[in-house]
Structure formats: structure tokens, C-alpha cells
Write a structure and sequence with these properties.
Layout: H1 2-22, H2 43-49, H3 54-74, E1 81-82, E2 85-86, H4 87-98, H5 103-116, H6 120-133, H7 138-152, H8 154-157, H9 159-172, H10 179-191, H11 196-208, H12 216-239, H13 254-260, E3 271-272, E4 275-276, E5 285-288, E6 291-294, H14 295-320, H15 327-333, E7 344-347, E8 352-355
Antiparallel strand pairs: 1-2, 3-4, 5-6, 7-8
Length: 369
């Protein structure tokens, strides 16, 4: 009987202790723990104070800083600034100096400094150091470039620098992680016609990629797209000086071209031996109002539209519980799409396809450049 009695006594004593402590919290308002940091050594001093245990000290100090961060939120007008940097930035400088390869320090610094405190320049400086210490971290590069684009308008103000940042990111990570960077890079080229160097960029990336790689089709199309957009901007400059109602002949007219480019025809202008060359997909250039138009680029846009129409048809088929009876009904479900440039829709019983018209010649192969 002694063992059960002893256990009972222990349980009762524990229950009494828990109950006595719990009474302090019954009805008490919740309070978030805060504290002030009185000692914020600079990184050099911190390393001297943590010999052999820098990583452990950094993580313990980081955990302890959560209560201090809450104090900073509760006292926004009392944030200290030392040597031009906030005390919170000084903390992360110290943590990074103690353990520069611990990724959460950089991400947490970005969250607090930029997202909460609005000190974006300090967040950018710490993220930039993170990409130096951990160059293959997709999260650090993504946060850094997002900060520069959203809050510093880097893409609009300095597109070449933006392109250089994306290039540095792509060069730092494995090839299997570059797809989203290349998509961003391609979108930049589409929004900003930056010149011949953008075509060279995609040609160089293609040269680095083995033939048959799953990335090869994307890089080929990206190079063609950049070349077409560059050529389009060159042609539009000529059309701007051509007479009203000008046709495609104006694009190869030496007099009009020399007015637009008095120092000579620039690289990327689709003219060879006095003849207007096809676009990079082998289709002709056309004049639409006061702008040049690539038929190949238009057909690619149509192919993307066909994919959207097929999604609409698939959703309608699920609602109806059946496939369209024929192509006419499929097109009706898709909203009676309109085609241009001789493209023809096809139907295989489940999805629409696009048959292109014959091109003037073979598409441009960027590997042959």
C-alpha cells in the first residue's frame, strides 16, 4: 500500500503547486514580454566575447532579441541610432558577424527592418551580404531583388543594373534553379528594349546549355523574342519618320532609314543586301498603323491564347459532363475566337490546336550566331 500512497501524495502536491501558480493568471490580462537591450557590442567586440562558440552565442542572442524587438514596436520614437544605423540593424550586423552562414538571420532582418520598421536601406545591405556569404540561396536573392524592385523601382530607373543583378543571381545558383530567373529576365526584356546585349545574353546562355537540355527550347525562344523586340524598336524608329500611310516598303527605303539612323544602320535592324529580312521565326514584318509587327510573334501569342481557350473548354466540359460535339461547339464554348495571319484552328476531339501558315523561311537558330 505504500507505493500507491506515495504516488498519490506526489500527485496531490503537484496539483496543489500548479493550482497555486495558476491563480496568478486567472483573470489577468495577457502581456507580451518586452525588454530593453543595454549592451549592443559592435561585431568586432562580439567575436572577442564569444571565442569558440560564436554560432551558439549568436543564436541565443537572436532568440533573446525577440522581446527587445517587441519593445521597439511599443516605443517607436525611442529607437536608438548608432553610427548612422539603427540599433536593430546593429544587432543583425553582430549576429551575421558571429555566424555569417545562418540563413534565417538575413531573412529575419529583412522582415523586421524592411517589413516592420521601414528601414529598407539597412535590410538591403544585410541581404546583399547574405548573397555574398550564401550565393546559392534562392530565398536571399529573391528577397534582395524584390526589395530593389518594389521599393527602389530598380527595374524602371536602372534596367541595365536590374539585368546585371539577375545575371549575378543566375550565375550563382545551379542550372536547375535558373528557370524562374530566366523568366524574370525575359519579362524585363519585354518591358524594356535594352539593346543588342539582351540578344547576346540569351545566345550566351544557350551556348552554355548542352543540346537536348530541357531548358534549350525556352532559351531558343527567349533569344528569338529578344531579337524580334529589338528589331521592332529599330523598325518603329524608321516608321516614325516615314510618310503617313507608309507600307512595308518604307522599312527598306534607304532615304527613310538614313533619316532615322544618320550614322548608319544599327545592329539588330533586319535588313540584308537592301532587303527586309523575315522575323526570327521566318515570318514577314508588317506595318500596322505607325508600328511594325512581327507575324511570328503574333502567332506565338495566338498559341498562348489557344491554351487559355482549351482551359475554358475543359471547365465547360466538366460542367456539362461531356466533351464538345465538334469543333464548332468547342469554338462556341471558347467564345468564338478570332484568328489572324492565316492561322487555322484544329480539333482532335478534346482540345483545340493551332496550325500556322507556311513561313517565308526557316526560323533563326541562335546557336548559329
Amino acid at each position: 500500500m505504500r507505493v500507491p500512497l506515495a504516488i498519490t501524495v506526489v500527485v496531490l502536491a503537484g496539483a496543489l503547486a500548479i493550482g497555486a501558480n495558476a491563480t496568478r493568471f486567472i483573470g489577468a490580462p495577457p502581456v507580451i514580454r518586452t525588454k530593453q537591450f543595454e549592451f549592443l557590442p559592435d561585431p568586432e567586440v562580439a567575436r572577442l566575447l564569444a571565442p569558440g562558440h560564436a554560432g551558439v552565442v549568436a543564436k541565443l542572442r537572436w532568440i533573446d532579441s525577440f522581446a527587445w524587438f517587441q519593445w521597439q514596436l511599443d516605443h517607436p520614437g525611442e529607437a536608438r541610432v548608432m553610427d548612422g544605423r539603427s540599433a536593430m540593424a546593429r544587432l543583425y550586423d553582430t549576429l551575421v558577424a558571429l555566424d555569417p552562414r545562418f540563413e534565417p538571420f538575413y531573412l529575419h532582418a529583412n522582415l523586421n527592418l524592411s517589413g516592420v520598421m521601414g528601414r529598407r536601406h539597412e535590410a538591403v545591405s544585410i541581404l546583399a551580404r547574405g548573397t555574398h556569404e550564401l550565393p546559392q540561396s534562392m530565398a536571399l536573392w529573391r528577397n534582395l531583388i524584390s526589395e530593389l524592385v518594389v521599393f527602389y523601382d530598380l527595374e524602371k530607373r536602372h534596367p541595365l543594373q536590374m539585368g546585371a543583378m539577375l545575371d549575378a543571381w543566375a550565375a550563382a545558383v545551379p542550372i536547375e534553379d535558373r528557370a524562374q530567373i530566366w523568366l524574370w529576365r525575359q519579362a524585363l526584356v519585354r518591358r524594356k528594349t535594352l539593346g543588342l546585349d539582351q540578344v547576346d545574353y540569351w545566345v550566351a546562355r544557350l551556348a552554355e546549355t548542352p543540346k537536348g537540355s530541357p531548358y534549350e527550347p525556352f532559351l531558343v525562344e527567349a533569344a528569338r523574342d529578344a531579337a524580334a523586340r529589338l528589331a521592332q524598336s529599330r523598325l518603329d524608329a524608321v516608321l516614325a519618320l516615314a510618310p503617313t500611310g507608309a507600307t512595308e516598303a518604307a522599312l527598306a527605303d534607304p532615304t527613310t532609314i538614313s533619316r532615322a539612323y544618320p550614322e548608319g544602320i544599327p545592329p539588330g535592324y533586319p535588313l540584308r543586301d537592301g532587303l527586309l529580312m523575315p522575323d526570327p521565326w521566318g515570318y514577314p514584318w508588317q506595318v500596322s498603323g505607325t508600328a511594325a509587327r512581327s507575324v511570328g510573334m503574333t502567332l506565338l501569342a495566338l498559341e498562348r491564347q489557344v491554351a487559355g481557350w482549351n482551359q475554358v473548354i475543359a471547365e465547360k466540359a466538366r460542367e456539362q459532363g461531356r466533351q464538345p460535339l465538334d469543333q464548332a461547339e468547342a469554338m462556341m464554348w471558347a467564345g468564338e475566337p478570332v484568328l489572324t495571319d492565316g492561322a487555322v484552328l484544329t480539333w482532335d476531339g478534346r482540345a483545340l490546336g493551332l496550325r500556322r501558315p507556311d513561313a517565308l523561311g526557316p526560323p533563326w537558330d541562335p546557336r548559329s550566331r
